[in-house]
Amino acid sequence: MTENEKKAILRIALYAGEIMLKNGAETYRTEDTINIICKSKELKHVNSFVTPTGIFVSDDRLDGISFIKRIKARTIDLSKISKVNNFAREFVKVDMTPKEALLELKRIDNEGKYKNFARVIFTGIASAFFALLFGAGLTDFILAFFISMIAIIVNWEIEKFGSTGFLANATSGALIAFFALISKSIGWGNSIDMIIVGSIMPLVPGVALTNGLRDFISGDLIAGATRVAEAILIAVSIAVGVGTVLKLWMHLFGGVL
Q: Which letter, b or e, does each residue of 181-217 get, where b requires 16 or more Cβ atoms within 10 Å of its Cβ?
C-alpha cells in the first residue's frame, strides 16, 4: 500500500467518525469505528482521540502524519449513526475503493432528516404523552401538544443564528411557561406544572447526559465531563427561561395561578 492510499484510508476513517460524532454517537463508539476501518486495511498503528468537539487521527508509522477535524455543531440522528456502522462493516468485508467509500459517506452525510412538519407533530405528541404520564388531564394533554410545537419551532429558528443553544433553550422555556400561565388564566388549563413539564421534555438533554455517563464509564474522562457539562448547561438554560417568566408573573400579578 502506497502512502497516498494510507492517507486516503485515514481520511475515510476521519469522515466516518465526523458523521457519527456530530449526530450524537458516543466517544468510544466513534473511536472504535475509526480504528476498525483503519485496521481492516492493515493500518495497525493508528491512534484516534475523540472529544465531543474534535477528532484526532494519526499513524505513527506513516511519518507522524495526523488528521484533525473540528466538530462545531452536534445534533441527534440515530439513523445516520446506524448507517455509518453498517458502512464500516461493509468496508471491512467488501473490497471497496477509497473513492467508493467517500461517495457512500457523503451520501449518508447529506441525507435529509424527516420533514419538519413530521418532526413538529411528533414532538407535540411526545410532549403531550409525557404530560399524561406525569398526571395531566385531557385539557393539559392538548395544551402540552400545541405549546411544545410552538416552542420547538422557535428553538430551531433561534439556533439558526448561532452555534450556542443557550438562548434558544432559554427562549423556548420562557415561551412554554408564558403559554402555560396564559392558558391557566383564561380557564383552559388545569395544572401549570403538568403543562410545563410535558412541554419541556423535547428540550431536556437526556442523550447528552446519558452519553456523558457512558463516556465516564468507558474511561473517557474528558469527553464525559464535557458532555455532562453540556447537559447541565442546557438544563440551566431551560430553567432560566421558565423561572424568569414565573418570577415576572408573580411580581406583576401577585402569584402563580
A: bebbeeeebbbbebbbbbbbbbbbbebbbebbebbee
The interaxial angle of helices 116-133 and 138-159, nearest 10 deg, is 140
Rounded CA separation 183/196 (Å): 11
From the centroid of its chain, how far is CA 141? 26
Provide the residue-wise pLDDT of the chain in tens; the chain has 257 residues.
677 888 888 999 999 999 999 998 888 889 999 999 988 888 878 888 898 889 998 877 656 678 889 988 788 888 899 999 999 989 988 888 889 999 999 999 998 777 889 989 999 999 999 999 988 889 999 999 999 999 999 998 888 886 667 899 999 999 999 999 999 888 888 889 999 999 999 999 888 888 888 888 888 888 888 889 889 999 999 999 999 999 999 888 765 55
User: Would you tell me how many other CB atoms lie within 10 Å of the CB of residue 105?
Assistant: 20
User: Is residue 15 a contact partner of residue 105, using CB atoms and an 8 Å limit?
Assistant: yes
How many residues are present in the chain? 257
Runs of H (alpha helix) within the chain: 3-22, 27-39, 78-93, 98-110, 116-133, 138-159, 166-185, 192-200, 206-218, 221-253
Closest residue by Cα to residue 253 from 192, 198, 197: 192
DSSP string, 1-55: --HHHHHHHHHHHHHHHHHHHHTT--HHHHHHHHHHHHHTTT-TTEEEEEETTEE
Q: What is the pTM of this model?
A: 0.81
HSE at residue 77, side-chain half, CA atoms within 13 A, is 21
